[in-house]
Amino acid sequence: MSIGALGGTISMTGAPDGQGVTSSLGAAELAKSVPGLDQCATLYLHTLARIGSGSIRFQHVFDTLAWARQQIDQGAQGVVITQGTDTLEETAFLLDLFWSAREPLVLMGAMRNPQLPGADGSANLLAAVQVATDAASCNRGALVVMNDDIHEARRVQKMHTTHVNAFVSPVRGPVGVIQEGRVTYLRDTPARPRLPVPSAYSSKVLLLEHSLDDDPDIVSFALDAGYAGIVVAGFGSGHASERLRDVLVTAATRIPVIMCSRTGAGSTTRAVYGYKGAEIDLQQHGVLMGGWLCPRKARLLLSAAVWNGIGGDELAGLLNAWSQ
């Protein structure tokens, strides 16, 4: 059983000058702080980085993926990654797109640093190891464990800035729970197509949140700047103003464009609204609908597709498989 640490609140302690907490604890220190953790499994501990999760780059994610795969190849029955919660849902989903091993890959973090009353990091780490060593966790891809809930990476979202129950799965709830040290799954996790690890990942996808009377020229700027795709966090169930619609339709003739919802929960619709800029009109002009995927994860899915040269009908099929 392997634990890789990337940093984040779970690893942060206070500075002598009283100017807030920063990442200082590595994997070994985190493991030592959890009573009974070494009784769950034989642990291999490695510190991958000591950074806030907002500074995680794609390079960190692919380095983490390579390390995790190496651990599985060397016989680990599962891998746990500790990191900050600000981008936890994104890191987990990006890893999930490429995690083809049957063994579990479990991500977790903490909402309260170790020096605060009621710090949750130790409990979350123990629960994550319990999940990663449970046979029922196999063939479920990447999972997120927070607050004794087990979430599928593609569904989980951080929905509060500070609460310990900040992580939820708005569509169907958690896929499982940990109670009295026992892992219980509530439903199956359907298999989805994983992608090859790309040889390069420099191509960029723009994520644009649509707002009242905003300027659609940003889409033209993105095209001129060489962006390889666009994801829009649109109004309601996936709608755009007429002005933005016109530039998106033009963009869709050159690069893939995905329309999601900015609401935070619910799916885009496919055949309800027919006005200019609504989903029927957009789809007729080549814009793809993001379904249940939040805009941030749609951006990562489109990025992964672009890096692998996937477009057209194959992209539509991939999006459909991951957005249900």
Describe this structure in words.
There is one protein chain. With 324 residues, this protein is of the alpha/beta class. It has two domains: 2-185, Rossmann fold, CATH 3.40.50; 205-322, 3-Layer(aba) Sandwich (Rossmann fold), CATH 3.40.50.40. 29% of the residues lie in helices and 21% in strands. It has an eight-stranded mixed β-sheet, sandwiched between helices. Strands 13-14-15-16 form a four-stranded parallel β-sheet, with helices on both faces. Strands 2-3 form a two-stranded antiparallel ribbon. Strand 6, helix 4 and strand 7 (142-146) form a beta-alpha-beta unit. Helix 3 runs parallel beside helix 8 (295-307), helix 5 (217-224) packs parallel to helix 6 (242-252) and helix 8 (295-307) packs antiparallel against helix 9. The model has no long low-confidence stretch (mean pLDDT 95).
